Amino acid sequence: MTSSRTPDSPETKYQRVMLKISGEALMGDQGFGLHPPTVQRIAQEVKSVHDLGVEICMVIGGGNIFRGLSGAAQGMERTTADYMGMLATVMNALAMQAALESLGVFTRVISAIPMDQVCEPYIRRRAVRHLEKKRVCIFAAGTGNPYFTTDTAATLRANEMGCQAIFKGTKVDGVYDKDPVKFPDAKRYEVVSYDDVLAKRLGVMDASAIALARDNNLPIIVFSLDEPGGFRGILAGRGTYTTVCG
Ligand code: UDP
User: Fold this and answer.
1) What is the CATH number for 65?
2) Do the domain assignments include residue 4?
3) Which of 21, 23, 27, 53 lies at a C-alpha separation of 20 to 30 Å from 34?
4) Is 8 domain-assigned?
5) What is the pLDDT of residue 3?
6) How far is ligand 1, taken at its centre, from the CA of residue 63, in Å?
7) CB under 8 Å to 42, separation ≥6 — which residues?
8) Is the CB of 162 under 6 A from ligand 1?
9) Considering its fold, how many domains does the chain have in total?
10) How far apart are CA 70 and CA 210, in angstroms?
11) Which ranges carry the Aspartate/glutamate/uridylate kinase domain (predicted)?
């Protein structure tokens, strides 16, 4: 169920999108936690797309605070560690909500794990209504299940909300055949198939997220969040990025 309405702005072909960012994107140059100026900068990027009338869903990871796998590696029960990771994503979602609202963008944090005093529980039809009213919906607590990641949560919610694409904001401007930080001769793909991402283990998103996107024909656009104005530019088809599709 993809949103089929005409975009509000001629600048972009998109009317409803999912923006996925990792928790680490919010920590700036620190090794941990939240860096408020960075959160504010990303909020500004989101606002400039919101100003076009695009309906925006967001999923933010939790890796800047806690990752289930690292907890498990230190002897913690995996499911407990994963629940801690999911709670970390709620903190990041609240930080992004505060930053967006300071810029005058209305938002809702919607959690897969009900915590009524803090944010809304996830009810699909309600979330769709928020989007129609141009509220940015920040989906928190992942899928609500251990053994998953927020990449899968982003793909799941993007499908449920009828998003036209997932925009994955990273530190690099697309998907490369090898790590561009380590290998200067790494080549960026313009377009790459879901199956190649899986077969070559290109590290765009985890395998369950890629498979869920593939099975529902949901394009994933990988771009750099470090470029000022980058998110809006990418929505208008400018700049460098990689499209993962069939
Ligand atoms: N997590 C989970 N189920 C989900 C989503 C997330 O258990 O549906 C946990 C998992 O432990 C994960 C942590 O939350 O390590 C933080 O999410 P993620 O690693 O995806 O964050 P990112 O790498 O994007 O910052």
Assistant:
1) 3.40.1160.10
2) no
3) 53
4) no
5) 53
6) 7
7) 21, 25, 26, 96, 99, 169, 225
8) no
9) 1
10) 23
11) 16-224
Gap from CA of 26 to ligand 1 centroid (Å): 15
**Which two tokens mark 224?**
């750099």
**pLDDT score, position 6:** 76
Q: Is 220 helix (H, G, I), strand (E, B) or coil?
A: strand
> Does the beta carbon of 86 sit less than 6 angstroms from any atom of ligand 1?
yes
49 with 232: CB under 8 angstroms?
Answer: yes
Residue 175 pLDDT: 97
**Pocket probe mutation, ligand 1, options 24, 67, 111, max atoms within 8 Å of Cβ:** 67
Which residues are annotated binding-site positions? 20-23, 62-63, 67, 82, 143-150, 170, 176, 179
Domain membership of residue 179 as a residue range: 16-245
Q: What is the pLDDT of residue 5?
A: 65
Sheet containing strand 107-111, edge to edge, reads 120-121, 107-111, 136-140, 55-60, 16-21, 165-170, 220-224, 242-245, 191-193
Residue 85 lies in a domain: yes
pLDDT of residue 23: 97
The confidence score (pLDDT) of residue 227 equals 87
Q: Does any domain span residue 1?
A: no
Is the CB of 7 within 6 Å of ligand 1? no
